[in-house]
Design a protein that fits this description.
- With 153 residues, the protein is of the alpha+beta class.
- It has two domains: 28 residues; 122 residues, no CATH class.
- The longest helix is centred in the first third of the chain and has 22 residues.
- 53% of the residues lie in helices and 19% in strands.
- It is globular.
- The N terminus is likely disordered.
Length: 153
């Protein structure tokens, strides 16, 4: 194989690699963020009330995102590690914090939103968030939604 042919093949392989990287990172745009929102208000009084509610009567607790991602000692380490591993910015808010920061018409909680290019949309609806029964199931759902989003971007 001549030098010229090898050079063209090398350039082609580099080009293909850049295209593949571009497609695989298409969802990791710096102006995108996933916002997880608890169906709970912020503040120490609310946190204390929610803690005891989850402890005493977990079946009637209104925030499935909290129930799935937290135990009595704090955030579940598997969830924290997963969030830290994502190639997209993540923000976790209480519903009062979300409502104070974002203008979203009639939001339902708990849910996750995608803020992309300044536009806010549902990433995981409250209905779907409430159907999750484990942190593993939630992680799988987030991964699937990220894959779906990267294919449409």
């Amino acid at each position: 194989m001549s030098f010229s042919t090898r050079w063209r093949l090398s350039i082609w392989n580099i080009f293909k690699a850049f295209i593949q990287i571009g497609f695989s990172l298409s969802f990791t745009m710096p102006n995108s963020k996933i916002i997880f929102v608890y169906n709970a208000d912020s503040g120490i009084l609310n946190a204390t009330k929610d803690f005891f509610h989850r402890l005493i009567s977990p079946d009637t607790y209104q925030c499935n995102l909290c129930a799935v991602t937290y135990n009595n000692t704090g955030m579940i380490s598997e969830w924290k590690s997963f969030l830290d591993s994502l190639d997209i910015s993540v923000e976790i808010l209480h519903k009062d914090e979300f409502n104070n920061r974002h203008n979203f018409d009639n939001p339902s909680f708990p849910s996750a939103f995608l803020l992309k290019n300044g536009k806010l949309s549902y990433f995981i609806s409250a209905e779907k968030m409430n159907s999750v029964s484990s942190v593993d199931e939630l992680i799988d759902m987030v991964r699937a939604k990220m894959q779906e989003e990267s294919e449409t971007s």
